[in-house]
Amino acid sequence: MRITREPELYDPPSTATRRLGRQVLIQWKAVGRAAMFTGMGFLYFRYMFSHRNRHEVFYQMFITGIRSLGVLTVVALFTGMIFALQTGLELARYGQEVHVGGAVTVVMLREMGPFMAGMILTASVGSSVGAQLGTMTVSEEVAALEIMSIDPIRFLVMPRLVAFTIMVPLCTFYTDIIAVLGGGLVGYTQFGIPPYLYYDNALIYAETKDLWIGILKAFVFGVIICSTACYQGFSTTGGAVGVGKSTRNTVVISFLLTLIVGYIITRLFYA
Amino acid sequence: MIRFDNVIKKFGHRLVLDRFNLHVKKGETMVLVGTSGAGKSVTLKHMVKLLKPTQGEVLIEGEAISATVGKDLQRLRGDFGFLFQSSALLQWMSVGENIALPLREHTSFSDEEIEEKVRSVLAQVGLEDAIWKLPAEISGGMKKRAGLARAIVTEPKIILYDEPTSGLDPVTSRTIDELIMHLKRDLGVTSVVVTHDMISALTVGDRIAMLHQGRVVEVSTPAEFLHSKHPEVRGFLDAQYISSDFLK
């Protein structure tokens, strides 16, 4: 699959309807191309542990997961604490603050864990992938790879796709744990709920299904973020301004798709 | 070796190559000159199928690269080394790793053999000390030389140079010219050089092709080129204060 593309020039559309139609076609083409990048990236998974790829795969996993742990810890801890505080204050009006543990755990496992991990990794790693591939595209590094017969999908996309599909679910699990711990801390200090009661309550409400669906969501979010970033990066034109635009598009599109797809998965499994 | 047969290239309605014909012979250095937008870089990109002709064919040793895909394209591209205007070195890899990349990807050489080969081509371009440096840590001229080392490490039959001296000072430019001539002499490669720099063109070229509005308007040896009566050629030479006795 060719990554270096020729500029696509069109006549200015004569009517608003034609303009709309053209935009739909262009966007549809973009979706198809991003899907092809992703599909081919998955096909190359068979080479992930080969001698020439494994170093890059582990490096991308390190960047995506380990380097994001600091910010994930802070955000997850405070989200859990805020959520426990807000829920606890409301439940306390009815003398039911003991249920804080269940509320925090269910919300984190089902929705907030994957969503927050997805958002943070989009902002920190997805944007950086979009910018890096964008810079490589405008400075002809991607074209150089193609001339050297090095497939940019295998060389650049596959290691990032492996990293995102493995590390976003792991980061989600980590986010869930830290947020539940944060909730427990507030439950104990603010509402006097003993830790054992908090966790007993959490285990009453939360099901294994919640955990697995959360992890599934995180996997899908990883694919979305990586394919959006790679597509935007490879489609960059116009120098530094183009790189800025690709980075912005990566973040905005990943956010929107994460929200929409997150809703669809919830609807599929819970409604 | 490289032949363009009536190639037409359009971007939208804009005609960039207009029934373009060119023949580069084996072992020669062909220089493409012309004003910006004349189609020089587009011509070069057609040779490695970074662009496809709208009409016509680009033949590499009789094989239409414009029609090849997959393994055949990979094999044909294997005959090429390409020096980009921006050098296009991967920024996160050291100079040595950049040069080793095509060897690691396409050969079964051991790490020791690769290092030996990398050191050998770095010595050829005078960059032995830069092996562990990152591209961001070296000058523009050194980047060009590192890009050239990467282009020649696989011992290609054809080397394409896109503006090899642009953005360089005159001394470094002449060093690059000397390198191009050395490579032709030592490796016997066929070269195509795109440049605006007439001193460079007259120094390294066996033949010079002048492009104007997507067509070749003159192909001649440097000596004949200097005495050309074609208005585009004269304008190009006069703009760089190149007189007809330059080669003397």
Layout: helices, strands, pairs:
The complex is a heterodimer of chains A (271) and B (248).
Chain A: H1 16-43, H2 54-64, H3 69-92, H4 100-138, H5 141-147, H6 152-191, H7 195-205, H8 208-234, H9 239-270
Helix pairs in contact in A: 1-6, 1-8, 2-6, 3-4, 3-6, 4-6, 4-7, 4-8, 4-9, 6-8, 8-9
Chain B: E1 2-11, E2 14-24, E3 29-34, H1 40-47, E4 55-60, E5 63-64, H2 70-77, E6 80-83, H3 95-106, H4 111-124, H5 140-152, E7 158-162, H6 170-187, E8 190-194, H7 198-204, E9 207-212, E10 215-220, H8 222-226, H9 231-239
Parallel strand pairs in B: 3-8, 3-9, 6-7, 7-8
Antiparallel strand pairs in B: 1-2, 1-4, 4-5, 9-10
Structure description:
The complex is a heterodimer of chains A (271) and B (248). With 271 residues, chain A is mainly α. Chain A has helices at 16-43, 54-64, 69-92, 100-138, 141-147, 152-191, 195-205, 208-234, 239-270. In chain A, α3 (69-92) runs parallel beside α6. Chain B is of the alpha/beta class. Chain B has a domain at 90-155. In chain B, α3 packs across α4, α3 runs parallel beside α5 and α4 (111-124) crosses α5 (140-152). The chains are: A mainly alpha (271), B alpha/beta (248). Chain A binds chain B through residues 4, 6-7, 9-11, 52, 135-136, 139-141, 143-144, 146-150, and chain B through 11-14, 48, 50-52, 73-74, 77-78, 80, 82, 84-86, 88-91, 101-102, 104-106, 154.
Oligomer: heterodimer
Mean pLDDT of chain B: 89
**Total number of β-strand segments of chain A?**
0
The chain-level structural class of chain A is mainly alpha
**Helix proportion range of chain B:** 25-40%
Query: Strands of the biggest beta sheet of chain B: in what spatial order?
Result: 6-7-8-3-9-10
Biggest sheet overview of chain B: 6 strands, mixed
Supply the helix-strand structural class of chain B.
alpha/beta
Ranges of chain B where pLDDT stays below 50 over 5 or more residues in a row are: none
Beta-sheet strand percentage of chain A? under 5%
The number of helical segments of chain B is: 9
Provide mean pLDDT of chain A, rounded.
92
Q: N-to-C SSE series of chain A?
A: HHHHHHHHH
The Cα radius of gyration of chain B reads 18 Å
**Silhouette of chain B:** globular
User: Could you tell me how far the N terminus lies from the C terminus of chain A, measured between alpha carbons in angstroms?
Assistant: 40 Å
The total of beta strands of chain B comes to: 10
Strand content of chain B: 15-25%
